[in-house]
Amino acid sequence: MKKFLLTCAAVLGIGTFASAETVTYTYSEQGFANAAALTEITYDGVNVSYAKGSNSNGPAYYNTGKAGRLYGGNSITFSVEEGSTITDITFTVGNSNKFNAASTANAGTFDATNAKWSGEAQTVTITQGGTSGHVRIESWTLTYTAGEAPAVAKPVITPNGGYVKAGDKIAIECATEGAEIYYTLDGDTPDKSSDKYTGEIVVNETEDFTLTAVAYVGEDASAAASADFKVMPVLNAINEIFLQTKGAQVIVNAEVVVTYKNGAYNYVYDLNRSCFGMIYQYDFVPNVGDKIAAGWTATVDKFKGLWQFKNPTGCTVAETDVKLPEPMRTHGYDIGYISASMQCQLMRLQEVTFAEATPEAASAFTGTLVNEDEPEGYVTANFYNQFKTASVEAGTYDVIAYVSVRQDSDNDPVKIQFFPVAYELSEPEEYNLYIAGEFNNWDYDNAPAMEFDGVATYTYTAEFNGEKAFSISEALGEEFERATFMTADGTVKVGETTPLDFDYDEIGKITFEGANGEYKITVVMNEETMTLNISSTSGIADIEAADTAARYFNLQGVEVANPSTGIYIRVAGGKATKVLVD
After folding, report:
1. Is the entire prediction scored with pTM above 0.85?
2. Looking at residues 45-74, what average pLDDT do you find?
């Protein structure tokens, strides 16, 4: 609301008049949503901009837009048209929130207790003192004296800077009738040789740019108007959020599926890169199982180390009831491999033991998982009941949870924690053994299971033709673990029995020396040991004698090109003979 005031002084009957203008801005009248970021505005001729300053928390609307909240170190800047002078700024603030005594202004005087600035300046910046606390501004009133109107009005750029994307339009207007506008995109002050404004400017830039405009009427030029624009980066996968800075606005060029909703927490799954992320927004419209088309925009946020997308726009549901991904199976041996880069990943923590009942409230607690490689024989997992999942009694459970992080400050290490969404009683599970791949192509989706003969013996028959290597992997149903069973040195000899050990670090290959052919792979298990044996499926009776150069076979019927010391079957001269090679 603007009021016009007249100040009169009479000297010898001659009246001298100077005009003053008062502008009042009330936040609740603007209709902004709760927690929306404070942005630069122009209201009744007054330009107002906000800055984070020394605080990682930025200025924001508070209580459904009823107030503007400045954190310690944030600032608010007022400026008026060239030739005008600000004389007074008064703030109305919440009863329990006052400007910090250390608050400052760049001209005149500022009384933090009364939230009032006075002086003479064209631009005034008020900084909330200290680095903590905040003030809630319900309204402000600014008084200024208007200067002599310029011959050509300064152009107005809309939007006046900020984030843009390809295809967005920028308008430039001048209040002076008949004015022609010229502009540049590199920050230089334009003249009549610069690009002439003939209509909205369509953004096709890939780098940040500064738009500067000057209006002309004949040879009279206006003051230059300038606005800085940031081009939104395009994320081709949601985990590329880690490459951005907090507060950046981005375009997410990846399809995602909503996997879980709880209050402002909206977890999504990236169909492009098979990774997880989170959209933090209370009124996020899509439902669990909805696939959101690529091309939506959001603001990058980071809270206590947890990266998240905020204030999404342009979320179009392309499909509903999409099948959700299965939780990643995790046990005590590989929980140490979970890192901050896996935040928002959905996991099934297997066989977690709770010494006491889990909490009902949103609070921290711990559970243990068996890991015999650790001195104590277990590892500890940190949980936080963020979603107030119903309590379970002390015992051993499989926990379905999202990976989260906790970082008290930017200089502190990131701590891994889990947000449980469900508990399931843990029961002993029977694992199957699979031969992974056809010996030179690993194919875990179509790996054949070894046959179980009822005495803890697993067998598999295959043709070795090419790379003489294979993998014995542990799996539950079709869900492969990251671990495999390996021999001590990664090799096995034909006809010999070799111990197997569980390898948690990687999926390895077992290799052996021998001729190409058909072999039977046998694994024998008991409570304490597991052994591997490879034998030929052919016998001595299958060897055909021929009048050719001598050929040697071991007692399992496998041809040996260069026999060392031992007993072999020698085939030569049309007959087979058992011989001793020394």
Report:
1. no
2. 85
